[in-house]
Amino acid sequence: MQDTGTMPHGPNHRRFLRRNVFSLGLAATLTIFMAFAVPVSVASLLRAAPAPGSAVADVATETVHYDSGGFNIEAFVAKPAGAGKHPAVLVIHDSQGLNNSIREIAKEFAAAGFFVLAPDFVSRRGGARTPEQMAQAVGQLSPNLTVQDARSAFTVLQSNPDVDAAAISTVGFGWGGWRSFMLAASVPELYRAVIYCGTTPAQSYDMMRAPVLAHYAQFDFRTTGNALVTEKSMSEAGKKFSYFVYPQSYRGFYFSGPQYKEDAAKLAWNRTLDFLRK
Amino acid sequence: MTRNKRLWMAVIAAAAVVAALSAGSAKTVPAQQSETLLSGSVKSDGGGKLDGVIVSAKRAGQTVTTSVFTDEDGNYYFPRMADGKYRVWAQAEGFEAGKAEVSLNGTAAHQNFTLNTIKDNLEIVKQMTGQEYVTSLPEDTPQHRKMKDVFYNTCTGCHEPSYILQNRFDEKGWEAILNLMSRVYNGGGEYAGPGMAPFPVMAYYKKELATYLSEARGPGPSTMQIKLHPRARGEAARAVITEYSIPIADPDQNPSDDGFPTNDGTFWSEGTPSALNGSRGLHDSQADRDGNIWFTTSEPSYTRTISKLDAKTGKVTDIKVPGMNDLAAPTHGLAIDPNGILWATIIGDPRGGGGNLLRVDPATMKYDVIAPPKGMGGASTSIDVDTKGNVWATTAIGAFRYDPAKHEFKEFRSPTPIDNGPGGSYGIAADRMGNGWWTQINIDRVNRADIESGKTQEFHEAPRPARADGAITADDKKLYELAGVELTDFSGWWSEGPRRLGADKNGDVVWVCDYWGGNLEKYDTRTLKSTLYRYPTPESAPYDASVDKDHNVWVNLTNGDSVARFNPRTEQWTEFPFPGRGINLRHISLDERDGVTRIIVGYTRNSKIARMQIRPREELQALKAQAQDSTARASQ
Questions:
Q1: For chain B, which end, N or C, has fewer CB atoms within 10 Å of the first or last residue's CB respectively?
Q2: What is the pLDDT of residues B567-578, one digit of tens each?
Q3: Whole-angstrom Cα distance, residue A106 to residue A89?
Q4: Torsion over CA of B589, B590, B593 and B598, rounded to 10 degrees?
């Protein structure tokens, strides 16, 4: 339920039924219903950024591989034009995997001047091809190992000669939001973190130095409702946290598809760029 | 092909032969068996007579328990029971249960009990109902009132308060419980993984609530002020309650020694039982024209879609309607039409038949599954039948009416449709004029479909006053707004929670139960005016209503382990306690086929069906006279 459109842990069938049975009177499963019934970002294209222009067309991309604890992780790289060191963004995909939506946003960030690395976390499971396979594989990944893979990706960026190692940020979408937040909580060298509809880690923020910006959708209640407690706990820990709630929007408002909301998507995109460029 | 014919073609699995699985270990009561009177008295160890004590008797090897109450003199009189060996026990809160074994053999039997007073509050607490726990929780300070609200509105939508509060934990312990609860799938209880956001209200108030609960139910002195409910008196003490133990649907999946739950709430000192052993799932229950009781099962099983309970023998016969992966299709709502045909809603995954109607002829035990037309919302939960035999069922975004004679469906949308989830429709009732009424529990809406115009209108219930009124901050309000509490699984301090409802088929009234608010709300079906009647202990949580032939309204009190009758003429309530604890009543129906009003309820959590009947004074007087006569003869 981290994202819409997929099951997080591939439960057995009986459990699935149990959750959908109206047995507890309160039709207890709005969020579960949404998890199954509202696929948001399957094969969607990112439209959060302004319409692709020549800047995006000029972005160079390539597929790279890096090591993470002995595993070979594939990643999509988008490079900004121009020589010299660039600020970087580690993009963490949502529950649908490294699809065209994520590649497009990687290129948008590159067009905006950032060196982008977007790991394919499904690499740990041998990769996946179809949207359904990707979503299923993402749901089967170990949470902790994905965080480890994100940390490894951060290390890769740190050693890249085209990257300004002091300005490496992360942007995570949905499923990737918790991982971006975890990265911020465990990697003091991280510059900034942006969370789109992501969950807040329960762990200590002692090591965190990166300010965090969160974008929440009004109707993504279970996640959005935690904005206040996140703000409170971050404040008590002396960490910087700011958030925006986008009215009348659902999780996935930043991707094209049934939940896309243009005004909210553009506003969140501009806020993200402003935040990363500070 | 006509539309009607096409619809009829949608009827699935017509007249499938019942795969009747005889379940349970009930034995048929032999014919021509003699019946014997059992009576006695109950007093306390202090010597005083105890009235309103529930005395129960269960015959060895049988699945039927009969319970009566002591009168104002502390005496009880069972209806005549078949001869045999019985376990007999007497229970009253604040006292240890009295237990005995009695053989009935044709001679009137006596069994007296002396109940020992429990001096330790920790032991008394174990016996309490959910309502008593909540009522006893402290509300002496604004913070206590706020936390009581948070607890009640957040935790008790899924769990009986007694199930939660019978446990004691220190602050860290309650925090751990809240941590876990905040991170499970609601409805199933499985841990959702670290990437899943916690339920916001639990996460936000976790520490404050853990403090509050640990002070009330922790290792140290308790802040609770124990307030026990009055015992049954007067008419309520004349009730006789017959409980039928229902075998666990899948004993191979949920092992127990004898196929029944290990703790079914019978003995109060054992507390509210866990429902993790297959004992939960029985939902609506309804008597057929022969007095046998049918019930639905909302938890998935491999054997049980709808079941017949033989009211004489206690034997249960399951009907399995194929669902997904060899499972039986689960069901929820159940009602009987004017022709004696039973109608149920199939719930769960549409691929397993969820959304369809189930029609069962109790005489032949044959069933049909009837699917709404494509594009129309499927049946979601509750069901009712109007006086003309039209079947009304809730859908995710409203309701539909099915005319069995014409095989026609008609759909109605709620004016404020909330697509599925708890914002969706829950209870339904058809009024005398044939209009449909249904509730949206989480958004406090009661809806009415006018059958003539086809239009639907809604009534938005006024917010109830908060316990913590005045202590609610801007942040509290912001939290509930961001968490979308109305549209998710919980309620707010303002929620009335219209849950299920019942129509007076001989009058012009629909009665709505406000689960969170603790009210019964009367809607005049002609003027459309509504009147609120607050239950004296609102934490009893009125759930469903059924109206008898005399216009009295019978309400099951989920947290009270009881039912109550509201007399609209006198506006007086009478509460009738039931013998179990944590029984979690979710539906109430009446059996008035011979002019006698019998109340039928299912113990959702404890796998029992119960039938209650109030004995006329004359009947009790006759039993009393016979008992006194036999005592006199025995002493000669």
A1: C
A2: 999 999 999 999
A3: 8
A4: 140
**A-to-B residue pairs, Cβ atoms closer than 8 angstroms:** 179
Contact of A181 with chain B, judged by CB distance below 8 Å, is answered with no
Which of A118, A203, A124, A107 lies closest to A154, judged by CA? A118
**Domain harbouring A80, CATH code:** 3.40.50.1820
Segment B379-402, tens digit of pLDDT: 999 999 999 999 999 998 899 999
Give the pTM.
Answer: 0.87
Q: Which residues contact A62 (CB under 8 A, 6 or more apart)?
A: A77, A79
Residues of B whose CB is below 8 A from A229 = 200, 203-204
Question: C-alpha distances in angstroms, B16 versus B320, B367, B370?
Answer: 10, 6, 12
Which of B203, B298, B442 is facing A229, going by the closest CB pair? B203
Contacts of A232 in chain B (CB under 8 A): 204
Determine whether B393 is exposed, middle or buried from the number of CB atoms within 10 Å of its CB (0-12, 13-18, 19+). Answer: buried
- A17–B475: do the CB atoms touch at under 8 Å? no
Classify residue A32: in a domain, yes or no.
Answer: no
The total number of structural domains that make up chain A: 1
d(CA B220, CA B122): 11
Report d(CA B436, CA B130) in Å as an integer: 32
The pLDDT-based confidence of B488 (bands split at 50, 70, 90) is low
A11: in domain:
no
- Per residue, what are the HEC states of B555-577? EEEHHHCEEEEEECCCCEEEEEE
In a 3-state reduction of DSSP, which class is residue A270?
Answer: helix
Nearest by CB: A19 against B185, B195, B488: B185
- How far apart are the C-alpha atoms of A191 and A141, rounded to whole Å? 26
The DSSP string of B313-327 is: T--EEEE--B-STTP
Q: Is A12 among the domain residues?
A: no
| Side chain identity at residue B6, one-letter code | R
Domain around A55: 38-277
**Pairing verdict, β A163-173 and A86-92:** parallel
* Residue A223 backbone dihedrals phi, psi, to 5 degrees: -80, -50
| Dihedral angle of Cα A153, A158, A164, A165, to the nearest 10 degrees | 110
**Cα–Cα nearest to B555, from B596, B594, B591, B587:** B587
3-class DSSP assignment, residue B367 = strand
- Does ipTM surpass 0.95 in this model? no
Q: Name every chain B residue with its beta carbon within 8 A of the beta carbon of A218.
A: 484
pLDDT in tens, B265-298: 999 999 998 877 788 899 999 999 999 999 999 9
